[in-house]
Design a protein that fits this description.
heterodimer, A: alpha/beta, 11 helices, B: 470 residues, Rossmann fold, six-stranded mixed β-sheet
């Protein structure tokens, strides 16, 4: 690891399927489009983080390559995607065996040993990390000084909020001893009328804040089907501007906090309150609803 | 690039292309290392070897006023017991991790253990040594260190041993010294140098250390010896020394490089002072670095004369000798055997790496056909080689001397024998002389058989050493 870190290292966590790879890839594309040198490292055994940055072309993962050959070079495990983003997938063990968390750890260590950051000299390194499981292995990017800040992608679904809260617990534990702090929450797939308010309320309860709202969009789905980011496929769309704004936030804002996660009963109570409020909205109960 | 910024050192394989399995002649070893990175070999069958946890605890056992918390299931504490039996030193406690701890994390148990030993011993330094279970589990040691460092006002050093990342136990030295320097050496940067010279002595016999200190004292040097018998302050002082010299350049390499790169303390490459020739070159190297050439030459001449006087006409002439030692000791003893008129027919060393290229180059010029076998704790391979070579004498420091002894030749253990410097030559000559005179123990042992079947021994000794195909 270099003494002074080369570029800003940012980890983006989120529940599986919540859209964190799409969000991360679009942020990478927007940063690259703005002229920055960007590396995106997929830290998920599914190894599909960077697919839409590189047109769906094959990219051997770090761990697969390590399994096949004793010496690995950066060229073996990277591909240049849209806007020059250097794409890397950590990969994982064969499903059902080994430890995926340790795999991520080993892959990131290898990239450091290969002096990736010193040689590529990135302005930004984005780690796209599976956030369902915050075991010791998956917490590595936020606990060993690898990333400076973490962002969480969440929707208004309870399980996504639950995963975000778990990540807050991990940050809360590791930040005092040199781990990453929370940069903020990215609200994704915002569609339901209550979604914004629900996520805002959750961030308010946990001492965090939303840094951007990404609406659910047909443009995203269509771009993905083309194997592209929105920035590439629909650069003039409103959705592209949403991602550009997020990229700008990451570029210009250094704020970070140590979140105050809710404990089990608190989270349950909070969720129940929202369950009641949503039910009332859907069934047309008329009362004071300032926050919705 | 700061080495100490990382959580732990890199493995010996990554630092120095170290091999743990190899067999060939000295000339072929030279060819192997001359072509850049050597091809890694694997063993398709292996007997047990030492590991980095064992070596880490060996270093820590030598540090004064300290106590070790082994963060591990109870079985890992066997490594500490091993050293306690061997040296009678070291205070330690094990956190006794169980099934629940591996699932839930065990920082609470670690915190309790640290407080308990601190209360009991009031040490100046406390080490937390991790273990394979903790390395796999990613248990959180760091926050315990930071929290209790403040609460107990105690220097706590975490040592991130994995037990599996490297095939070389010597990696345990590096992992330990990395943490010791990182936490006790002070901030990176050049310091005003004082008059002291660092004597890097790692797990050496106390008599060997004394001999080295005596010789360097004769040059008028003020020494800071570490990590053997070091105190907390030794590491801070090390960062301010004018020079680092080692007793085993290979073992101490990482420490010397860290002191050089982090604190600008020069580190010189010298041979291990074993035998008259190598000890002379060791002194000369230090003399050259400090402009004390004449004094070094004078000490060498006076001491050599004393040795010649004390060993008299002792000779190994006509004897074919096999060596099984750590690489630095083996190369030094090879030269000593030559000085005494003997012939080395084969060597087993625990590892070979880029640091040995110079020694191999020099020795292969004189003895290209000497067999060199790279193995740590592989008695079945060694027994097979020795049966084929039929040497007249065996000098070794392994744990399997008794197996070799069953082959009938005189076996000399260097395990507890001080061999460094001029006194080392005398001590070794005496022990060899005794072994050659009194052969009855070897003869009695030879009436028992080695535990390997003839079918095994008919196979070539390197049958299980294969090139890794990837």
């Amino acid at each position: 690891m270099s003494e002074k870190k080369q570029g800003k290292h940012i980890a983006i966590y989120g529940k599986g399927g919540i859209g964190k790879s799409t969000t991360t890839s679009n942020i990478s594309a927007a940063l690259a489009d703005a002229g920055y040198r960007v590396i995106q490292i997929g830290c998920d055994p599914k190894s599909d983080s960077t697919t839409i940055l590189r047109g769906g072309n094959d990219l051997p993962t770090v761990l697969d390559t390590l399994r096949e050959q004793s010496k690995v070079k950066i060229e073996d495990v990277s591909a240049v995607g849209f806007g020059g983003v250097l794409c890397i997938e950590a990969g994982g063990p064969v499903p059902g065996v080994g430890c995926a968390g340790r795999g991520i750890n080993a892959a990131v260590e290898l990239l450091q040993e290969l002096h990736l950051f010193e040689e590529y000299k990135p302005d930004f390194v984005l780690y796209d990390v599976l956030g369902d499981v915050v075991c010791g292995g998956f917490a590595v990017p936020i606990r060993d000084g690898i990333a400076d800040r973490a962002f969480v992608v969440t929707s208004s679904d309870f399980m996504a909020i639950f995963a975000a809260n778990n990540l807050f617990k991990a940050i809360n534990k590791y930040a005092p001893s040199g781990g990453a702090r929370l940069g903020g929450v990215i609200a994704n797939s915002v569609q339901a009328p209550y979604a914004k308010a629900l996520i805002d309320d959750f961030t308010g309860e946990t001492g965090t804040s939303v840094v951007g709202y990404v609406p659910r969009s047909f443009t995203v789905s269509q771009s993905e089907l083309y194997g592209q980011t929105v920035i590439e496929a629909h650069p003039k769309s409103e959705q592209a501007d949403v991602y550009r704004n997020l990229a700008k936030y990451l570029d210009t804002n250094e704020d970070s906090v140590i979140p105050k996660p809710l404990n089990g009963p608190e989270l349950k109570k909070w969720a129940r309150t929202w369950g009641d409020r949503i039910f009332e909205v859907e069934t047309g109960v008329v009362q004071k609803m300032e926050s919705i | 690039m700061s080495l100490l910024k990382a959580k732990a050192s890199r493995t010996r394989e990554k630092q120095l292309d170290a091999l743990n399995a190899w067999q060939g002649t000295l000339f072929s070893a030279l060819t192997e290392f001359s072509g850049g990175e050597p091809v890694k070999r694997i063993r398709t069958f292996s007997q047990s070897t030492e590991d980095d946890l064992l070596y880490a605890l060996r270093v820590l056992a030598g540090i004064r006023d300290s106590v070790v918390v082994i963060h591990a299931p109870r079985g890992c504490a066997a490594a500490a017991l091993f050293h306690q039996v061997e040296s009678g030193r070291g205070r330690w406690i094990v956190t006794n991790l169980d099934d629940r701890d591996t699932i839930m994390g065990a920082d609470g148990k670690l915190r309790k253990a640290v407080k308990e030993v601190n209360q009991r011993y009031k040490p100046e330094l406390l080490f937390i040594v991790s273990s394979p279970v903790v390395a796999i589990n990613n248990d959180d040691i760091q926050s315990v260190v930071e929290e209790l460092h403040e609460e107990l006002e105690l220097d706590i050093v975490p040592i991130y041993v994995t037990g599996f990342a490297s095939h070389h136990a010597v990696t345990g030295y590096d992992t330990t010294l990395h943490s010791l320097l990182k936490y006790l050496g002070g901030k990176k940067g050049k310091r005003p140098h004082d008059e002291r010279v660092n004597l890097l002595s790692i797990a050496e016999h106390p008599h060997d250390r004394n001999e080295a200190e005596r010789l360097l004292g004769a040059l008028g040097l003020e020494l800071n010896t570490l990590p053997d018998d070091a105190s907390k302050n030794s590491f801070r002082q090390a960062a301010m020394a004018r020079l680092s010299v080692s007793l085993d350049y290979g073992a101490a390499h990482y420490l010397g490089v860290c002191l050089r790169d982090e604190y600008d303390v020069p580190f010189i490459g010298t041979p291990r002072p074993v035998g008259l020739g190598a000890t002379g070159r060791w002194l000369a190297g230090i003399g050259n670095a400090l402009e004390l050439q004449d004094a070094a030459q004078r000490v060498h001449e006076e001491e050599s004369e004393k040795v010649r006087h004390s060993i008299g006409d002792f000779t190994l002439k006509g004897l074919r000798v096999y060596l099984s030692l750590s690489p630095a000791t083996a190369f030094g003893v090879l030269e000593l055997v030559e000085e005494l008129g003997g012939e080395v027919v084969g060597i087993t060393v625990s590892r070979l790496d880029q640091l040995h290229k110079g020694a191999i180059e020099e020795l292969s010029g004189r003895h290209p056909a000497i067999l060199i076998h790279v193995a740590d704790g592989q008695p079945f391979e060694e027994v097979n080689i020795i049966k084929r070579l039929s040497p007249d004498l065996y000098l070794g420091d392994s744990l399997h001397l008794a197996q070799v002894g069953r082959l009938g030749m005189p076996v000399v253990s260097l395990r507890d024998l001080p061999v460094l410097g001029y006194q080392g030559v005398t001590a070794l000559a005496r022990r060899i002389s005794t072994a050659l005179l009194n052969r009855s123990f070897g003869e009695a042992l030879s009436r028992t058989s080695v535990p390997y079947k003839d079918g095994w021994l008919r196979r070539s000794p390197n049958w299980h050493i294969k090139k890794e195909v990837k």
